[in-house]
Structures are given as C-alpha cells and as structure tokens.
Amino acid sequence: MLKRLQSAEARLQLTEQRYRSLIESIPDIIYTMDLDGSLSFISPRWKTILGHDESEVLGQYFIHFAPPEEHPFLIQVFKEARNYKKNVENVHWQYFRKDGQRRYFLGSAAPMLGAEGQVNGIIGIARDVTEHKLLEEQLLQAQKMESIGNLAGGIAHDFNNLLGGILGYATFLKRKLTAKHALYPSAVSIEKSAQRAAELTRQLLGFARPGKSEIRPIDCNAVIRELILLLKRTIDRRIAVAADLEAHLPGMEGDEIAIHQSLMNICLNARDAMPQGGRLLITTRKKMIIPDQAARQRGLKGGPYIQITVSDTGTGIGSEVRGQIFDPFFTTKDPGRGTGLGLAIVYGIIQNHGGYIEVQSQVGQGTVFTLLLPAIPAARSRKVNPPALFKEVQGEETVLLVDDEEIIRELGADLLEDRGYRVLLAADGREAINIYKERNLEISLIILDVVMPGMGGKETFQQLKALNPRVKVLLSSGYSAKGEVGEILKLGAAGFIQKPYREEELAARARELLDIN
C-alpha cells in the first residue's frame, strides 16, 4: 500500500514537473482567475513581458493593468467565460507594462470546470503581439499616405496650371504698366497672391512625391547647427535649445533645403507645444540597419543611416490623434494658426529621401520625433551654385511650346513673343511631332510639358530625339510624376522649369539653353 502511494506521489510530482516545464517554456503568458476576476496564477512570462513581480499581480482584479477605455469590453469577455461557460477566442486587448508602456495582446480564455460541471475559475493565454501591431499600423499609415500623396500631387499639378496663367499674366501686366499707373498696385497684389498660392502647391508637391530638386552631399550636423542658431534668435527665450551631435557623422545625399525645412517644421511644432517654456533637444547618431522584416516593413534598406531625434518637454500628443498628425490639413491648432501641412510635408520629404520617421509621445510627457536617413560613407565636397540672375533677355529664334493647357500655351506665346521670339504651339505630343517634322530646321528650342494625356512627355521626347539627336528640349511641369522629369533629363533633355513660372524665369532659361552650342 505504501509503495503504491509513493509511486502515485512520484507520478504526480513528475506530472507537475512536466506541466511546469511546459508552462515556463511557452513564450505566451498563462494565467488563471478566480470567479471574482482576481488573478490567482501567472506564468513567468508575465514578468518578462510586463515587468511585474508575482506579488504585484496575484490577487489583483484582472482589468487593473488595462487602459480604462478597455475595461467594459474585458469585463464582458470575462462574464461570457464565467456565466455562460463559453470559450472566448482571438480577443485583442492592451495591458500597461510596469514602466507605463502599452503592450498589445491576442489571447483566449476558457472556464475551468469542476467534477460536477461547475465553473471554478477562468484560465487564459495571452500572446504579446505589440511588434506585429506596430508594424501593421506603420504599413497602413504608409498606404494611407501614398493614397493621400497621389491625391495631393494631382490637385497640385492641376492647380499649378491654373496658377501659371494667373501669375504669368500678372507679371506680364506689371512689366507693361508704369509704377504710377492706377492698375499697377492691382497687378502687384495679384502677383503676390499667386506667388503665395504657388508656394502652397510646392509644399503639396513636396509631400506627394519628389520633383526636380538639387541632390548633393549634405552635412546634417552643419544643417542642424545653422538651424539651432536660427531658433535661438527667433523663438521664445524660455525654451532652451540644445544639440547633441555625434562627431564624424557620415554625410547623406539629398535636397539640403528640404531637410532643413523638415527639421524646422518639427521644431516649430515643438515650440508651439511649449507655450510656458521648456527644452528642445536635437541629437544625431550613426545607426546601422539590418535588413530584417522590421526594416522592410518600414521601407528601409540595410546599411548605414543617420538617426536624428528632435525631443521636447511640451504638452505631448494624445493617442486619439497621434495617428493623424502626418495627414495633410490635419491640425490641432486654432483656426488661422496653421495649415496642417507642416508634418505632412516632413513625412513626404523623409519618404522621398528613402528614410523613415516615427513619433513617440504621451500627453504631459513631451514628444520625440525620430528620423532615419540613408548615409553615404563620406560627404563629398559640396558644390554651391550661385543663384541665377534674371536678366532682361531678348531673342529672335523660333520656339515650339507644347502643353495641353490652353492658358499655358497662350501665356507662353505672349511672354516669348513680347521678347522677340517666334512661337509655335502644340496641344499634345502628336501635334508637336507633326510640327517638328515639317519645321525642324527653323525650331531652335522646344518647351515640353511632362504630364499630358495621350502621348506623354517622355514618349514625345523620345520621338523628337529620334528625329534629331541634338534637339534642345526644356521640360516644364507642375508635378513630376514618379520622377519622370529625372528620367527624361537622363535621356538627354536640356533642362527643367517648374510651373508656375515667372516671365523672367522662363525668358532666362530659354535664353540660357539657346546660347548653348
């Protein structure tokens, strides 16, 4: 009898040891609850994932660790398992770590039944899916921003064509009128208003996709030092501005003005979040990205990166709006204090440079923006081109202007003919090809719109190039769709002018290309 009891006890101990080993080896949290919802058992993974000791958890009501907004849902799930003896599966919820960080879980719960079928408690399993959840949100954000970017780019392109006529004719009228003429102030007002609208569309294009910009090596530390000096002179002195810049930081290639604009937009948002003063800190670090799944989800290639963080001690961003801060025209500022484009432009610029941006923030605890930008092994010497000077240039050559917008064609003809040029007009690519076949000997320059229905700018250029390998083509666009301008420039186009262009700029670019042998 004694031997049988000892054997049974040994088997029981072995079974308990197996179950304990099984529970401890599972990467998920195993837990049990009493009928009142208090936690009666947790597996060691609880401490690993959430940081609480067993003594801090046992006896606590299970919703104690969840955000208040999830309490009603979790209580309903508990009641279904307890009152109706139901297995509840694929439940999503959040728990707070001991340090206050939110963790996302996916789990199931089931009633623990006694010998007579009564419910003695609840047993559950919870899997930490935080990383998967964050990657999913980033992917959805990227898809949403791509869709909004396409919309913003299309609107900006069409709007630029309209502005081209307004701005161009306003400048044309201003030049024709004397400063004492009664209509001169009106022409100046129209021109200034159109220029402000053109700047808004440029911001939209910067958010949507990269257009034609000057790509060159950038020293990010130098850009930040210049930015710090500017901020210290212009923002509230109660805000302490500081930098922690890593020495020997690698360079990057891109549009220096756009990178400066991005950092400035973030800093100005930080300023607005600290109306009573605070601290603004910008740091730079070298970072190596390993090409794993997380990097791919963020659109990052493996290799060296520059990490820039901008942190403030301001009011923070609530979770209810954090996912919208990069959306165009979304703002929490009072009417008239912001366009809602600042962070949308930042997002577009960083994406267009092959980088990534994320934000961490809690109400009352400040905000941290982290930017990752691809680095180059060493910054090559930067070539700084002096700004172009628009001269009162004239000409007598023949120019073929190709654009599907009638107002742009009429404007271009008026501007160029007023300066002595002969102008031929084409409404699309096919018409341009036909005109060039007949009159190529007299045509010295072609101004070609990139985005046109039917035969687009690239195909038109290729056919022109086939007719005359030395043809001079000045590309023109209010929107560079998917880098098409860059592609045509690589094929041999002579230059690019951004719509809406001013009269002086168009004349100067045309004269510059015509003077090239």
User: Which overall shape is indicated by the principal axes computed on the Cα atoms?
Assistant: elongated
> Class of the largest domain, according to the CATH hierarchy?
Alpha Beta
Low-confidence stretches: 335-339, 379-391
What portion of residues is helical?
A: 40-55%
How much of the residues is beta strand, in percent?
15-25%
Q: Going across the major beta sheet, what is the strand order?
A: 2-1-5-4-3
Question: What would you say this structure looks like, in words?
Answer:
The chain has four domains: 23-128, PAS domain (Beta-Lactamase), CATH 3.30.450.20; 134-208, Helix Hairpins (Orthogonal Bundle); 216-374, Histidine kinase-like ATPase, C-terminal domain (Heat Shock Protein 90); 398-514, Rossmann fold (3-Layer(aba) Sandwich). The strands form four sheets. Strands 2-1-5-4-3 form a five-stranded antiparallel sheet, with helices on both faces. The protein is built from 16 helices and 17 strands. It is of the alpha/beta class and 517 residues long. α8 packs antiparallel against α11 and α13 runs parallel beside α14. The termini are far apart. The relative contact order is 0.09.
